[in-house]
Specification:
With about 230 residues, the protein is mostly helical. The chain is built from ten helices and two strands, in the order ααββαααααααα. The longest helix has 28 residues, at about 65-90.
Length: about 230
């Protein structure tokens, strides 16, 4: 009972101090997520033809239209992932939020493949859900060494994340949530992904996008602050 009360007390304290602890990064992430959904919702009707099957999966048509459709879907997925991670980070469960980071890293690889393929095959494959096979290998080829491996470890039923909570001297495991510079890094990473997603959608839809320079400056300032504070 005492352990449970201590954990709930820690969660409450971390929620109450979220804005105080990571105000700049939080504001940047919120601004980027808002920009993403604003852009995704401003696309409207576009001329062009997309052929779909009985399940609504595209089978052909204008490649640019297919790409825009896919990026809108990806933008909505990314928005929900970023917001879900925000809620988990608010309570201090940093390791548990990394499953959301993993999704964004996978979306980054899907986005790259879709935009680099002029045939539309990668776009249709992603919309159909058939690009997931081999995603780990493809992400690893595009990411820093061990990044995806560590994100997967935190996302599966693996015991190793618990070992990180163990005190090396006493051997005790502290299950209480806490806030470290990793929260700030996650929020800035989420902001960067949402920002890039908004720019991609705006470009494909030929929309003018204002406020990106200011958002870029805020993101860069956040990384500089984090580097100065935590290395």
């Amino acid at each position: 009972m005492q352990v449970n009360e201590a954990i709930m007390s820690a969660e409450t304290r971390l929620r109450d101090t979220f804005e105080q602890d990571v105000g700049h990064e939080l504001n940047v992430a919120d601004a980027a997520a808002t920009l993403l959904m604003t852009v995704a919702g401003s696309v409207g009707e576009r001329t062009g033809r997309i052929d779909v099957d009985a399940n609504g999966v595209p089978t052909g048509g204008d490649v640019a239209m297919l790409q825009l459709f896919a990026m809108q879907l990806m933008g909505m997925r990314a928005f929900r992932v970023v917001r879900a991670a925000r809620a988990v980070l608010e309570c201090g469960y940093e390791a548990e939020s990394r499953s959301n980071d993993r999704i964004l890293v996978e979306l980054l690889e899907h986005r790259r493949a879709i935009l680099e393929d002029s045939s539309g095959a990668e776009t249709k494959a992603w919309i159909e859900g058939s690009r997931s096979h081999g995603i780990g290998k493809r992400v690893a080829e595009q990411s820093p060494e061990d990044l995806y491996f560590n994100l997967c470890m935190d996302s599966h039923g693996d015991p190793r994340p618990i070992a990180r909570l163990q005190d090396p001297e006493t051997g005790e495991i502290n299950a209480e949530p806490k806030r470290t510079p990793a929260t700030r890094a996650s929020l800035l990473m989420h902001a960067g992904f949402a920002r890039d997603m908004a720019v991609v959608i705006a470009g494909l839809a030929a929309l003018e996008l204002g406020g990106v320079d200011e958002l870029d400056a805020a993101i860069n300032d956040g990384w500089a602050r984090l580097e100065a504070d935590a290395g």
